[in-house]
Write a structure and sequence with these properties.
Layout (H helix, E strand, L loop, with lengths): L3 E2 L16 E4 L1 E2 L18 E2 L3 E2 L2 H13 L7 E4 L8 H14 L6 E5 L1 H6 L2 H10 L3 E7 L3 H6 L6 H13 L3 E8 L7 H15 L3 E6 L8 H6 L8 H13 L8 E3 L10 E2 L2 H16 L2 H4 L10
Parallel strand pairs: 1-4, 2-6, 6-7, 7-8, 8-9, 9-10, 10-11
Antiparallel strand pairs: 3-5, 11-12
This protein binds iron/sulfur cluster.
Amino acid sequence: MILQKVPPEQIIIRPPVEAYSVLIPVTGGCSWNKCRFCGTYGGVYGVIQDYAIRPLEDVLRDIDSYSERNYHGFPVFLAGGNPTSAPTDYLVKILTHVRKKLKNVPRISCYAKALDILRKTDDELKQLAEAGLDIVYMGLESGSSKILRIMKKGTNAQSMIIAGKRVLKAGIKLSLYVILGLGSYELSEEHVKETARVLTEINPTIFRFRTLNILPNTPLWEDYKSGKFQLLKPVDCLKEEYEIIANLGPNVTSQVYNDHISNYCSLESLNIKEDREVFLKTLESYINDPRIKNLPRKNLTHM
Ligand code: SF4
């Protein structure tokens, strides 16, 4: 199948929580584009998109256009795989323009990759916070360096910890994604223990669970089809989530969400330190439910 290449101003994904936000494309594609479980910009949605930083004038013109059409009072999501890969002064101009042209914006957010954060100085991160960047969504995926290496994430656990802490220190909120099942059965225990350890070290504002589904057009697809990589059963995904929460340190006060179609539960907490016991009890009741124990695993190929 020949995939159509789409320009950077075409938005391919955004987090579910940004469904009702003003979406402004800043970058197209992903500057890394190598993670084995991800094909977002490589064809899983029927198109491909090369990495590019949009011309500043085009982004500012989009903001003006939203302003003229009275899109005031909405959160703003700066779209693209990793806008924080763009130069800081470029991003500051965009953030400042959003704040100037759109009134009562409750939140400005974007995706961020740990490597891009590490490339910025503390002062640059502070400039982004001061210009109005409220929160970044970062894929931790796993706290295990081994799994991150196998999955070609391009980052290890220590880099994730440093990047996460620097985001928070700059005054930007941090939302991390954790993928249940990313280590398959072989590395499930390591995935759980190391993810809990990294989350404890960072104590992010939010962390969100996603469940691994392997989509065609991802590098992991062949391993899945050949039986080399196995998906966890639903009950085992819930067990991983249980163990991650159970292994968190007592300092962790993060909000926790299962806010994705891939999840097998929809539990939420506004403070996992306060809700840990009830969260675990509820997960336990799911895990012990015979209907869930026997629920067959379905690989979602469209999301
Ligand atoms: S998971 Fe994120 S960093 Fe990795 S290839 Fe996909 S968009 Fe890029």
